[in-house]
Write a structure and sequence with these properties.
Elements: H1 2-9, H2 14-29, E1 35-38, H3 45-54, E2 61-67, H4 75-90, H5 95-101, H6 104-110, H7 116-129, H8 136-153, E3 157-163, E4 191-197, H9 200-208, E5 213-216, H10 222-233, H11 238-248, H12 252-261, H13 268-277, H14 282-297, H15 301-312, H16 319-326, H17 330-342, E6 346-349, E7 352-355, H18 358-368, H19 377-386
Parallel strand pairs: 1-4, 1-5, 2-3, 3-4
Antiparallel strand pairs: 6-7
């Protein structure tokens, strides 16, 4: 069902798709570069990478699609799961098989289908897991080495697509893991890494050091916005598209939610407000998820929320202005602002700080103004006039 819906809605990403597909021919000659897709949550990275996987129809390639936030992020469990997922994709095993095979016994069971090198990797993983204190860094390394070994043995080029790749850094919290990223051999002849991440500030410098080609996924153009709106809501006039674009700035997720609401509410501004304010609104859920996820990764949540409240009611502010409004010294305020920049909630340009996502800024402003999650018609009319 998800695949059918996504294929119907896929639009506006042909340029990026072409970049990904061009790299496949380079993979055949071993001259490829790994690719890291970066973009804000909801910009369409997942749609793009899954469509890329669906369009790989050359038997020379074996696509593997892994959502890293669905894997167990302890080195021991991770090594089992990454190997089992790669095997399942290569040999077209279903989810039931996968869920029943994620164990040491499952690893042992697949050995009969493997060649010498990949079978030896299984033996090494099992050997480590049976120790009282396994080498956690080695387990991560072996898990990824399995990709090259099994690709070579099956005369395939493995296209290893990993969503939320920044989650790999969570393995660094374990005692024996000095640097999970350094455990991965990225320059593998038969493996192309295609990764996604929304942790732009924190993770982009990490992949840049490892010779990844970085592709930043931006918002839709106005024409691309129109294409998505019409796939969701049917034929619309340009005035409606212009209104949606002015409110969402072409952000794919926000555009989709407003277009979906248009099926029952023909007023664009009203549809946008209900999506943003109502607890069941897609924009509401999306913004709340961004906010909670980012704040959970940053220290000093209470004061950070205060700063976000201040910035939500002011498009741009200087450091001195913010420090006065939160009653803290400039050095303390600057430190807090740096934490918000690190989790991609705010940006700094020409010594002015602002919330990076204007829709998120409205969401925070509405929340902190005490606007109820189910606004009445009078309030909606007032807010429409302010948009």
């Amino acid at each position: 069902m998800r695949e059918k819906i996504e294929r119907k809605l896929f639009s506006g990403r042909d340029f990026y798709l072409e970049q990904l597909q061009n790299n496949l021919s380079l993979l055949k000659s071993g001259q490829h570069r790994n690719i890291a897709l970066f973009g804000s949550k909801g910009c369409g990275k997942s749609f793009l990478i899954r469509e890329f996987v669906r369009r790989i129809d050359d038997n020379a390639f074996a696509p593997v699609y892994i959502e890293l936030n669905r894997l167990s992020l302890s080195p021991e469990s991770f090594s089992i799961e990454i190997i089992t997922n790669i095997f399942a994709w290569l040999f077209k095993k279903d989810y039931k098989w996968l869920s029943e095979s994620i164990s040491i016994e499952g690893l042992k069971a697949i050995k009969s289908s493997l060649g010498k090198n990949s079978s030896e990797i299984i033996d090494k993983v099992v050997n480590e897991l049976e120790k009282i204190k396994p080498n956690q860094q080695l387990l991560i390394e072996l898990g990824f080495n399995f990709a090259q070994a099994i690709a070579e043995e099956n005369s395939k080029k493995l296209v290893l697509c990993i969503e939320n790749f920044d989650k790999i850094l969570e393995l660094n919290g374990f005692e024996q893991v000095s640097d999970a990223f350094s455990a991965i051999k990225f320059q593998q002849r038969d493996v192309l890494f295609v990764t996604t991440s929304s942790a732009i500030w924190q993770f982009k410098p990490t992949v840049a050091k490892h010779n990844f080609e970085i592709i930043e996924i931006g918002n839709f153009s106005k024409d691309e916005t129109k294409a998505l709106v019409e796939r969701v809501a049917g034929k619309v006039i340009n005035t409606i598209v212009n209104e949606i674009y002015s409110l969402t700035l072409g952000h794919p997720a926000y555009t989709y939610y407003v277009a979906s609401r248009l099926k029952e509410i023909v007023d664009v501004k009203k549809a946008f407000l209900i999506e943003t304010l109502s607890g069941d609104g897609g924009i509401h859920r999306h913004c709340d998820s961004i906010l909670q996820s980012a704040l959970s990764r940053a220290r000093g949540k209470t004061l950070l929320a205060v700063i976000l409240n201040v910035l939500s009611h002011n498009e741009k502010l200087r450091l001195t202005e913010i420090s006065k409004k939160i009653f803290r010294s400039a050095p303390v305020t600057k430190s807090l602002l740096s934490r918000l920049i690190e989790v991609d909630l705010i940006s700094k340009s020409e010594n002015l700080y602002s919330i990076s996502d204007p829709v998120l800024r409205r969401f925070i402003a509405y929340q902190n103004s005490g606007i109820t999650s189910e606004p009445d018609e009078v309030l909606l009319k007032k807010l429409e006039e302010e948009l």
